[in-house]
Amino acid sequence: MSSEASDTLDQAMVRSSGLDTLLRDLTDRAVQEVPGADACSITVRRAGRLLTLAGSDGLPSGLDLRQYENGSGPCVDAAETGEEQYGPDLAEESRWPSYTRYALSTGVRCVLAVPVAVEDESGAALNFYGVRAGALETGRDAARAFAARAGDAIDVALRIERRRQSAADVRTALLSRSVIDQAVGILMARERIDARIALERLRRVSQDRNIKLRDLCGQLVARVSAPDSRRRQ
Questions:
Q1: What is the C-alpha separation between 104 and 45, in angstroms, rounded?
Q2: Which residues pair with 39 in a beta bridge?
Q3: What is the pLDDT along the chain (233 residues), one digit of tens a residue?
Q4: d(CA 173, CA 171)
Q5: CA neighbor of 176 nearest in space, from 166, 188, 168
Q6: Closest C-alpha to 74, from 120, 29, 108, 33
Q7: What predicted TM-score, i.e. pTM, was given to this entire model?
Q8: Smallest Cα–Cα separation from 86: which of 36, 50, 46, 31?
Q9: Which ranges of 192-226 does DSSP label H, i.e. alpha helix?
Q10: Start-end of H helices in 73-212
Q11: DSSP per position, 13-37
């Protein structure tokens, strides 16, 4: 891959405000940099199943999903085996009969799926699609180089996404704890009971009504904080 292409990927990582933006940038750049590629997508296994994280402009709808549903196809095999899959002419391809019929119906004639090493994920691939038989033959080296470079970018993006999710989980936990503490305080003041008994009562009502403790406490705090409630006190 040229140094200009590498610089462009680094710039995309800096510009990106999230995983979706970054990966879409990568797939669009892949189409520009790999000879014969008319579309590109990124497959990653997350939570035990394969997903398409991003696709370039021009990617036929359902092209990857059909592979995941059948458990068969070039990007599935590349992600699961770690071996490159190349179908120079899908009209002559016999490895993935159900998938090739669908791909041909969308206008895709040539497919190249290159494995991508992604940290903390069990499988990933960069998938290139061409509309002419043999279109990707001269671009295979460029595709491999791009996939190696993209793997670093995908790693960074996924780490950022995991950290954001972790931070969101912490914020949710803190907010839940806060509203529960407020509800406990309201019961303590109203019923003149200690914190342990107040929390037990809230938990019992939560179970009886089949409502999450956090939501029950939020409703109680909201009622007490409402303007009409304050005027009555």
A1: 25
A2: 129
A3: 444 444 444 444 444 445 667 778 889 999 999 999 999 999 888 777 888 888 898 888 788 988 998 889 999 999 999 999 999 999 999 999 989 999 999 999 999 999 988 766 568 899 999 999 999 999 999 999 999 888 877 777 666 666 665 555 555 555 667 778 788 888 888 888 888 888 888 888 888 888 888 888 888 888 887 655 444 44
A4: 5
A5: 168
A6: 108
A7: 0.63
A8: 36
A9: 195-209, 213-225
A10: 74-81, 97-105, 140-191, 195-209
A11: HHH-SSHHHHHHHHHHHHHHHSTT-
Residue type, 176: S
CB 111 within 8 A of CB 143: no
What dihedral angle (degrees, nearest 10) is formed by the CA atoms of 79, 83, 89, 90? -40
- Position of tokens 């590349």? 78
Residue found under tokens 């009562």: 201
Q: Give the CA count within 13 Å in the CB-facing half-sphere of 3.
A: 0
How is residue 209 written in tokens? 């009504």
**Nearest to 223, CA basis, from 204, 215, 205:** 215
Q: Six-digit token pair at 222?
A: 């909201």
Helix (H) or strand (E) holding 113: strand 110-115
Other beta carbons less than 10 A from residue 72's beta carbon: 16
> Rg of the chain over CA atoms, in angstroms?
26
